[in-house]
Specification:
This protein is α+β, with helices and mostly antiparallel strands and 215 residues long. It has 5 helices and 12 strands. Strand 7 (123-125) and strand 8 form a beta hairpin.
């Protein structure tokens, strides 16, 4: 088995653990018609250093968040599970939205599109709100980011369509020259880029060819 195949398997396992570890820890019913039913979704809070993020990613890009799409459930039709309001059972599903990121540059992997779609866990749809904890901050339009991404495998529990899944997100403060990530100390953007480049150089071709371009 090649290094590229091993890295691809690792990225699938990591994403599977991240999402499979999501747990509904509470459901709060609405007190009146104007309040949503709140589903509290929790995952083990984690964050990886740049070196590990490179090794586990299929694609690494720098870009700016352009827009956030419609909130929808991970069900086939995008609506809540049929028995949810009667039983309170979400059947393992949750609400997410799609963030569109305008790409400024590809750091590792192969991708030719000008934009890329990324999954953001949490949101509100038809009177139900999913509030995630432990997944890190969501992607806000206008933010400049460095994304470490992988595509969910076909056999994953949830189908996110053409969306890529985040292994790690660094927010890039252009004025201060600082990069920050969930649960990690901020570092200079120059240091982040140097650490990422060092790992890519050490992995060679494998780090640049293991991505799967969207069709």
């Amino acid at each position: 088995m090649t290094r590229a195949q091993l890295m691809g398997m690792a990225s699938v396992v990591i994403v599977g653990l991240l999402l499979a570890g999501a747990l509904v820890v509470g459901i709060r019913t609405a007190m009146d018609e104007d309040e949503p039913i709140v589903v509290e979704l929790s995952a083990y809070p984690w964050s990886v250093e740049p070196e590990d993020a490179v090794r586990w990613s299929d694609l690494m890009v720098i870009g700016r968040v352009d827009a956030a799409g419609e909130d929808r459930w991970t069900t086939d039709d995008g609506n809540e599970p049929s028995e949810f309001r009667r039983t309170g059972n979400s059947e393992g599903h949750f609400i997410y939205r799609t963030a569109t990121v305008a790409i400024e540059g590809v750091i590792g992997g192969s991708y030719t599109g000008k934009t890329i779609k990324v999954t953001v866990v949490g949101g509100r749809r038809r009177g139900v709100e999913v509030r995630p904890e432990g997944f890190g901050p969501e992607l806000q339009p206008g933010a400049r980011v460095m994304l470490f991404l992988t595509r969910p495998a076909a056999e994953e529990t949830w189908e996110f369509g053409e969306n890529w899944t985040r292994i790690q997100t660094y927010w890039l403060d252009e004025e201060a020259g600082v990069a920050s990530a969930y649960l990690l100390p901020s570092i200079p953007v120059s240091e982040l880029k140097a650490r990422v480049d060092a790992v890519i150089d050490s992995l060679g071709v494998a780090a640049r060819e293991r991505a799967h371009p969207l069709r």
